[in-house]
């Protein structure tokens, strides 16, 4: 009888020893086999080439931090330097690959360059192409010729009179007298025409020079304004303020850059940036940008098939059909 009791106790003890283990197994959480949701930035890093990924992150942050995200932006990396890239297409930002190489991974300098190109678009800055300039000069000549002819008292009508006078002289004054008078009429006409032509050419040259000076002054003003807004936008987005100085220095190192001669002098631009550092220090700009970014979502994007360009969509997305479904459902 004792043996039976001991066996029962042993069995019961064994059950007690194994029972907590069973409980612990039953209460362990079931593992989640579903993959974690990939963030927009993680997906972009996986899909985009390194340079386009960097530009996407820069444009996303600048756009959201400065209320530039109400419109789409397009960025393309180009093999040719074009300081007037902002004029080529609405909201298109062209980045010279040689500039990327010279920056050596300086994100803040790149961000300042990008933000100044965005500023050109925001402020609707325009640059007249060589074709447009030629058309403007042609219009100057046409207007000048019309002005000179008008001042001469209808040059065409007088030319007709002179021609008629020559015919009359030859017809009714035969011999040397007729030829002499006809020659006088002809010489007077040629003299007036040559004088008018010289006057037209002189005025056209003067007015063309004035046009070029005005275009140059306008472009310099646009450059300095874009520098200012580019500095403020990039710093507001959290990038280093000195990045703008480094960006200008990098442009100065690029060989054959128009920035070195025809446009606003590099020294003048750098002096203006240094003044902005004092006038708009980072602590006055960064909180505003951080507040805007924290209240918004990363912008989605579409990449071209050849991965040569990238479209960063506005905060409304890239599809009107999806947006109307978001507002009112399907």
TrEMBL record:
Residues 55-167 form the Peptidase M48 domain. GO terms for cellular component: membrane. Its cofactor is Zn(2+). It holds the Pfam family Peptidase_M48. Keywords: Coiled coil, Hydrolase, Metal-binding, Metalloprotease, Protease, Signal, Zinc. The keyword Cytoplasm does not apply. Residues 186-213 form a coiled coil. One of its GO terms (molecular function) is metalloendopeptidase activity. Binds 1 zinc ion per subunit. One of its GO terms (biological process) is proteolysis involved in protein catabolic process. It comes from the Bacteria. Residues 1-26 form the signal peptide. Belongs to the peptidase M48 family. This is Peptidase M48. It comes from Brunnivagina elsteri CCALA 953. The lineage of its organism: Bacteria, Bacillati, Cyanobacteriota, Cyanophyceae, Nostocales.
């Amino acid at each position: 009888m004792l043996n039976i009791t001991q066996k029962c106790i042993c069995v019961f003890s064994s059950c007690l020893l194994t029972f907590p283990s069973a409980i612990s197994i039953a209460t362990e959480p079931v593992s989640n086999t579903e993959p974690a949701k990939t963030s927009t930035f993680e997906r972009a890093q996986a899909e985009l080439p390194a340079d386009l990924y960097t530009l996407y992150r820069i444009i996303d942050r600048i756009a959201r931090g400065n209320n530039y995200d109400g419109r789409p932006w397009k960025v393309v990396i180009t093999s040719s330097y074009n300081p007037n890239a902002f004029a080529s297409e609405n909201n298109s930002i062209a980045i010279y690959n040689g500039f990327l190489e010279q920056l050596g991974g300086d994100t803040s300098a790149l961000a300042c360059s990008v933000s100044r190109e965005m500023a050109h678009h925001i402020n609707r800055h325009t640059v007249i192409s060589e074709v447009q300039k030629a058309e403007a000069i042609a219009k100057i000549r046409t207007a000048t010729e019309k002005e000179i002819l008008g001042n001469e008292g209808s040059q065409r009508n007088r030319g007709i009179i002179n021609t008629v006078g020559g015919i009359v002289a030859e017809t009714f004054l035969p011999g040397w007298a007729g030829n002499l008078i006809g020659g006088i009429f002809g010489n007077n006409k040629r003299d007036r025409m040559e004088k008018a032509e010289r006057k037209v050419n002189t005025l056209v040259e003067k007015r063309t020079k004035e046009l070029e000076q005005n275009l140059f002054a306008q472009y310099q003003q646009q450059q300095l304004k874009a520098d200012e807004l580019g500095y403020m936008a990039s710093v507001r987005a959290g990038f280093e303020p000195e990045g703008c100085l480094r960006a200008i220095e990098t442009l100065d190192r690029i060989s054959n850059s128009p920035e070195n001669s025809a446009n606003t002098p590099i020294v003048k631009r750098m002096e203006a940036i240094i003044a902005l550092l004092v006038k708009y220090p980072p602590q006055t700009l960064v909180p505003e940008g951080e507040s805007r970014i924290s209240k918004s979502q990363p912008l989605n994007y579409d990449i071209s098939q050849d991965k040569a360009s990238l479209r960063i969509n506005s905060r409304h997305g890239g599809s009107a059909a999806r947006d109307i479904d978001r507002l009112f459902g399907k």
